[in-house]
Amino acid sequence: MFSLPPLDALLSAAHVVSLPMRVKFRGVETREVMVFEGPAGWGEFGPFLEYDDEESSRWLASALEAGWLGHPEPVRDWVPVNATVPAVSANQVPAVLDAFDAVDTVKIKVAEAGQSMSEDAARVGAVRHLLPDAKIRVDANGGWGVDQAISALRMLSVFGLEYAEQPVATIAEMAAVRKALSGSVLIAADESVRKATDPLAVARAGAADLIIVKAAPLGGVRRALEIVAEAGLPAVVSSALDSSVGISTGLALAAALPELPFACGLGTVSLMAADVASPSLVAVAGGMDVRSVVADPDLLAQFAAPAERRDWWLDRLRRCYALL
Question: Phi and psi of 189, rounded to 5°?
């Protein structure tokens, strides 16, 4: 661990931005995040608005690691990246995929509240029709029950799934789904790792074939590397709808992992209509060169959040800082 910078230094350096989305993702149409520059680079503090202070404090620890300690040395200089398709209608899939360059792997959101399995199948089928050779993975964000998940994944498996991410909410349910599918669809744990008090419990329970790791929710790149090593499972690095500053932290994690068997979910800047950096950190030819990101002062000013939202984030920063 490193010495925390003074709170006053963070408050004075903080930029709160409001970034419009090209398409609604996770119910979000405008993404608010805080970024600041430290002596080692830029960090991003962007827990979703509904997260409590205890959970959000880990996101702050990650941002401070990036800005005041810097990232570990990389072991690779290029990282493969998947495209992401939100829970849109099947006829919107082509427009979403057009925002990505040279797609080899696609993650598709399923189990959206208010939508049916037939809508999920139509969306996945639309991707498979457009990209017959691409690897396809689906992400339910814990939105199914056990029986729903088994039924849905058996149906969707006809499209050829690389894996299914967090099909159900709990570790016990994950283990039940994995046992029922008997290896026909690999199971990946996301929320069962990043939102758990014990991120290694899913590995001990044999509830997943691989884990999804996100640097910010786990408290930073170094802590995420420790969790991957201790879990002993293959890992996929993903993001949490970050700006290019936040994506650069995920990229640093992917670059530092000893092994990287899967494309990473770091392409969500392509779903945004604005960013804090120019050029944005987006995938080209199916991947990203490992590099740092510097926020653009003009973009920070152009997309600065209104005063009342800035005050809300500064108050949140104070509360989360007190928990570190």
Answer: -100, 130
